[in-house]
Amino acid sequence: MSQNDLDALDPTERIKYESNYLRGGIEAGLADRVTGAIADADTKLLKFHGSYMQDDRDLRAERQKQKLEPAYSFMIRIRMPGGVCQPDQWLALDDIAQRHANGTLRITTRQTFQYHGVLKRDLKLTMQDINATLLDTIAACGDVNRNVNCNVNPYQSDLHAEVFDWSKRLSEHLLPRMRAYHEIWLDGERVAASEGADDEPLYGERYLPRKFKIAVAVPPSNDVDVFANDLGFIAIRDDHGALAGFNVSVGGGMGTTHGEPETYPRLADVVGFCTPDQVLDVAWNVVAVQRDWGDRVNRKHARLKYTLDTHGVDAFRVEVERRAGFSLEEPRDYTFDKNSDDYGWVKGADGKWHLTLFVENGRIKDEGNRRLMSALREIAKVLKGEFRLTATQNVIISRVAAQSKNKIEGILREHGIEPEEDLSAIRRSSMACVAFPTCGLAMAESERYLPSLIDKLEAAMAANGLRDDAIVVRMTGCPNGCARPFLGEIGFVGKAMGKYNLYLGAGYHGERLNKLYRENIGEEQILGELEPLIAEYAQKREPGEPFGDYVIRAGHIAATREGRDFHD
Amino acid sequence: MPSQLLTESNSPLTREQADELSRVVQGLRNDQITWLSGYLAGLSAAATAGAPAAAQEGAPISAEAPELTILYGSQTGNAEEVAQQAARKAEERGFQPQILDMADCNKPKLKAASRLLVVVSTHGEGEAPDNATELHELVHSKKAPPLKDAKFSVLALGDTSYEHFCQTGRDFDTRLEALGAERVHPRVDCDVDFEEAAEAWIDGAIEALAGELDAPPSPSNVVAFGPVHHGAEQPSAYSKKNPFQAELLENLVLNGRGSAKETRHIELSLEDSGLTWEPGDSLGVLPENNPREVEDVLAALGFSGDEPVEGPRGEVDLREGLTHDYEITTLTRPFLQSWAQLVETEELTALLAEDQRDELRDWLWGRHVIDVLQTWPASGLAAQDFLGYLRKLPARLYSIASSCSANPDEVHLTIAAVRYDAHGREREGVASTWLADRVADDTPVRVYVDHNKNFKLPADGDAPIIMIGPGTGVAPFRAFIEERETQGAAGRNWLFFGDQRFQTDFLYQRDWLRWREKGLLERVDVAFSRDQADKVYVQDRLRENARDLYAWLVDGAYVYVCGDADYMAPDVHQALVDVIAEQGGLSQDDAAGWLGQLQKDKRYQRDVY
Ligand code: SRM
Ligand SMILES: Cc1cc2nc3c(=O)[nH]c(=O)nc-3n(C[C@H](O)[C@H](O)[C@H](O)COP(=O)(O)OP(=O)(O)OC[C@H]3O[C@@H](n4cnc5c(N)ncnc54)[C@H](O)[C@@H]3O)c2cc1C
Ligand SMILES: Cc1cc2nc3c(=O)[nH]c(=O)nc-3n(C[C@H](O)[C@H](O)[C@H](O)COP(=O)(O)O)c2cc1C
Ligand code: SF4
Questions:
Q1: Which residues of B touch A64 (CB under 8 A)?
Q2: Which residue in A1, A377, A453, B225 is a FRET match for B399, CA 20 to 30 A apart?
Q3: Could A67 and B524 be called an inter-chain contact, meaning their C-beta atoms sit closer than 8 Å?
Q4: Could A34 and B255 be called an inter-chain contact, meaning their C-beta atoms sit closer than 8 Å?
Q5: Phi–psi pair at A296, nearest 5 degrees
């Protein structure tokens, strides 16, 4: 690859290309005691290793005055396909959070854990401790296939096992080899460049043009928001209820930039059906075509969703089929009914019990007498089953024998948590991204603010007799869309401190994007807009009609049919 | 306004000058005259300073003018200042003065001195200043030369709040006598406000030596203490005697949230003061006592505070005097002695016995004047008499953390606020907490520049330097680098810094990073003691980098150490000796000697406190 070729591309392309397979100067940077940071270019490479450099934005201005560098620390994201975590792993991860991170575990919208506040000098040790749990952080971030989402489906335990297995195999199959990871963090022996041991058969020296995400859904639940992913697999059962294969969807994504209409969220198109044995080839080739066709000049236009709108969905499918050496069948029928979780105990087909707990915005911590972190630690010590993290930032205590239910409930109560908490439905179907203080891209508060806003919406709902009616509320601190705000019946997207764009009209089960309703408004206006709508909805909705559908029928907002008319 | 008129006959002035000057002086208020005297003092000091060279510039001295050696040992410049002062006086008295740095005084030179004035301070725990250690050893060793026909007198500078008051001066005094020299004038021991005592000693000692000389050329013009003259600088009107009233520009805590430390960054305006300094100089600050402390002292003695008293600045009420002019916290032996007599208490008298030094030290720890007043109250003491027991509130020195050539209008200081609890009372350091808590934007901060020629960048801008400054010890090095940046000096720079925690206590981190980015700082090595299980200090980093460190030294690097005198400085010294021994394949003794030579060559300089 010649220099001028590189010059023509987005700068990140050069950094990747010249990084000697993601080594760059990371090791030297870690050794430098004078700063808690590492070099800019290396921060881009570090993402592939599963970590982001951040700083405490609450302290930025203050430390600047104090002649101190920003309070740098590192976020670490774990690779945990399908969000399944064994009890012993849970205990280890919890311990790491106390020793090396800020004492909390953060369940993400992609079913894994993030640590925040890990100092540079502790980074390597933390990575080693994580790997000791048989989990790792490879490709949790970066221009590669990310953590694979998988439906947590407590009911159909049999199917879950099978589907979960496929998501794990997908994750492994598309995993970069990354010798650099083993060298830098695990003191793996170093390889001479010549040996070719570094080769990346799928990714090459420049990896993908952009991040890539896969989710596996099991109807009728769309808890993973499969259409928000670059590649989706929707499980289809045969007449005997066994796994027949998957509908394949491509081209989903949320990320946008304020004031740049050429960026837009897009829901994936279902382009066909494949049998289980074809899953890995389909995935491999979808990634490969995006690798070759994706836009490497403009990162803001590099996701698969734009590749599809540039080249056409059919052309893309044909190319994938050509490379795979087989064609996709016609999509099969399926129906989704919701994209949020069911709470409380449910019994699976195998007779085991599953308890879904609401974790506000995914932050596992002890707070006052609600000591969730300690409770789950105690449960992990006795649990025979496993934990499952959901794509809406909740946790399921899974595969509990009937006779153990009381013990689990006992532990929860001891730690100030009602097993089947009677929370308002709107709170339960809300989620927010991390944003301040750690997220470098945040324009407004999100995780730290949504709960107090929900207090007020909750009141409005109750006042109109809707306490137990769910409205999907999603908030993010910027338009990148980490909490999939454009799939919220009510979406809030940060514009500036205390100011949000208000979006309305997404589909209740993630089948339709919402649309901008009001721009750049503060809490007072937010409530001023929503309280009347909620009252009206209570009066005029048809039986079972979701809020997102109602506001469209009532003409408050136009329906978004596809990504490209999102801004219309 | 002055009583007597100037004429050409009663002054060295021409008629015109005398008339003009008289006219000017006529109209002046007292405070203006005081200022003017300081101003003239500054001028004359600066004009004649830097003796002997400068001394010879004055009225031509007859060839046979008798020689007089003025030997000084000084760490922070006071003794040196006194020496130069003495030189000026000696010259007027018809001597041919020779100022001699103790570091440059070898056996022959000492032996050759027939008239000897010794001015020396004490540092550490009763130790000699760095530049005096060798001579101090020499006179105590059996290699010491006989001084049969030498006449001498010693001035000892010190601080009565230290256990070994003026120890080094005492040592020289006794040794010189033991070696056969004749003490022609008794030794004088000075407390921190040494100026008047020193002037008196100078006059006394010079007269004693002058015995055989004929009377001085009259009239001798007023000479007072002034700033040590530096190169081509414009002399400033302001000095320790006549401090400049600076305005506070900035006062912020350098330690990040959650730190156990409180280190302040203070910026003061020196605009229009004419004050100049060089990296390594310190700023003298005349603080105010804590009002709470003042009230407690008043209460303990049953004073209202409104009692009129005569203080160093004229008549003030007692509260005012105690606040501005007297030390009412730190205890000194003289105070305890006179107080013990006043209140006639066995307890205190016993503590002061010679064989009780250790007990006294322990007892003094964390105790202040107020503790004495409350434990042994005195009744019926007159306000004015009480002041008689106290010493003047001494100025506190702070290493200047900014370069004059980079920014002549402001000085930056790096100050650790002294706060601790002891004996059931919250204790606060006078100056550090005054600056931290009680100086408002409009509070005048009385300051002067305390020049320290024993802590200076190499004249050669290409010479490499190694700076070792943990905690507030890093302050002067910020000035060093800023200076080298503005001078465009090419010499390589290596900084060693240490403190408790990287996240919160990395003083001036942004500055160091910027200078490293620019390539100005070639290396920065840091040690944070509380970031890991086992404590790590700068001396550990020195040892870790032994090879490179030695290479730099062999390369002609200058080594600077600033900060804590009690633990850091000795540990760093030992580390340096170890590095030299290990890398140079020398015995501990030879390595120590190697370092000693470095010190003599002024390539190993320390400013520790
Ligand atoms: C933790 C998480 C939000 C949460 O509250 O759980 C998250 C957090 C961040 N996301 Fe995200 N994203 C998270 C899910 C998402 C999702 C939702 C999803 O994947 O289902 C999206 C929208 C879907 C998509 O990819 O389009 C998402 C779209 C982005 C984008 C925009 C991508 C784009 O195509 O424009 C960015 C910014 C970027 O990549 O340039 C981003 C960047 C970030 C960063 C790393 C900010 C940065 O680049 O410096 C955030 C770290 C904040 C912090 O302090 O932890 N994150 N991010 C989610 C972690 C998922 C995981 O475990 O991998
Ligand atoms: C050349 C030189 C340069 C200096 N540079 C700096 C500088 O750059 N920055 C800086 O901060 N200081 C510097 N100092 C020290 C400074 O001059 C003061 O001594 C210091 O600020 C304390 O003064 P203070 O008036 O606040 O405290 P004081 O009222 O003088 O009280 C200090 C005394 O309190 C006692 N004490 C302190 N802490 C405790 C404790 N925990 N327990 C019991 N007793 C205690 C000790 O006896 C100490 O001597 C320098 C000193 C010198 C000589
Ligand atoms: C770190 C330090 C230690 C000191 N130790 C003593 C001491 O032990 N005994 C004493 O009498 N004076 C002591 N002093 C006071 C000095 O001798 C006094 O300030 C003197 O004026 C300094 O003179 P110089 O500037 O010539 O060194 C000490 C001063 C400092 C800064
Ligand atoms: S949506 Fe924006 S603010 Fe929220 S985590 Fe993602 S990047 Fe940060």
A1: 510
A2: B225
A3: no
A4: no
A5: -100, 5
Cβ of A484 below 6 Å from ligand 1: yes
| Distance from C-alpha of A26 to C-alpha of A38, rounded to nearest angstrom | 7
**A335-366 as b/e: b if 16+ CB within 10 A:** ebebbbbbbebeebeeebbbbbbbbbbbbbbb
Find the closest chain B residue to A73 by CA distance: B503
Helix, strand and coil content of chain B, in percent to the nearest 5, comes to 40, 20, 40
ipTM: 0.92
Residue nearest to atom 27 of ligand 3 (CA): B75
Q: Are A52 and A211 in contact (CB under 8 A)?
A: no
Length of chain B equals 609
For residue A250 and ligand 4, the question of a CB distance below 6 A is answered with: no
Any idea which residue has 């002054």 for tokens?
B11
CB B311, CB B439: distance < 8 Å: no
pLDDT tens digits for chain A (568 residues)?
677 789 999 999 999 999 999 999 999 999 999 999 999 999 999 999 999 999 999 999 999 999 999 999 999 999 999 999 999 999 999 999 999 999 999 999 999 999 999 999 999 999 999 999 999 999 999 999 999 999 997 788 788 889 999 999 999 999 999 999 999 999 887 766 556 778 999 999 999 999 999 999 999 999 999 999 999 999 999 999 899 999 999 999 999 999 999 999 999 999 999 999 999 999 999 999 999 999 999 999 999 999 999 999 999 999 999 999 999 999 999 999 999 888 999 999 889 999 999 999 999 999 999 999 999 999 999 999 999 999 999 999 999 999 999 999 999 999 999 998 899 999 999 999 999 999 999 999 999 999 999 999 999 999 999 999 999 999 999 999 999 999 999 999 999 999 999 999 999 999 999 999 999 999 999 999 999 999 999 999 999 999 999 999 999 999 999 999 999 9
B507 to chain A, any CB pair closer than 8 A? The answer is: yes
Say which residues have a Cβ less than 8 Å from residue B606's Cβ, sequence separation at least 6. B130, B455, B560, B561, B562, B569
CA distance between the termini of chain B: 43
Does residue A228's CB lie within 6 angstroms of at least one atom of ligand 1? Answer: yes
Q: What is the CB < 6 Å shell around ligand 2?
A: B 76, 282, 329-330, 365-366, 396-399, 414-416, 418, 420, 422, 429-432, 472, 475, 607, 609
CB atoms within 10 A of CB A2: 7
Residues 6+ apart with CB under 8 A from B356: B350
Pocket test residue of A141, A256, A441 for ligand 4, highest count of atoms within 8 A of CB: A441
Per CB-CB distance under 8 Å, the chain B contacts of A63 are 256
- Please name which of B121, B55, B129 lies closest in space to residue B85, comparing C-alpha atoms: B55
Residue indicated by tokens 């440059």: B104
Which chain B residues contact residue A34 at CB under 8 A? 509, 512-513, 516, 524, 526
Whole-number Cα distances in Å, A394 to A102, A285, A415, A429: 20, 32, 18, 10
**Ligand 1 binding pocket includes A110 (Cβ within 6 Å):** yes
- Do A146 and A212 touch, CB atoms closer than 8 A? yes
Distances (CA, A) of B316 to B302, B305, B388: 18, 10, 15
Distance CA B122, CA B157 (A): 7
Tokens 């690779």 belong to which residue?
A79
Distance CA B519, CA B46 (A): 38
The number of the ligand nearest the C-alpha atom of A268 reads 1
Which run of H or E residues covers position B283? Answer: strand B282-286
Whole-angstrom distance, CA of residue B334 vs CA of residue B322: 18
Q: CA of A31: which chain B residue's CA is closest? A: B525
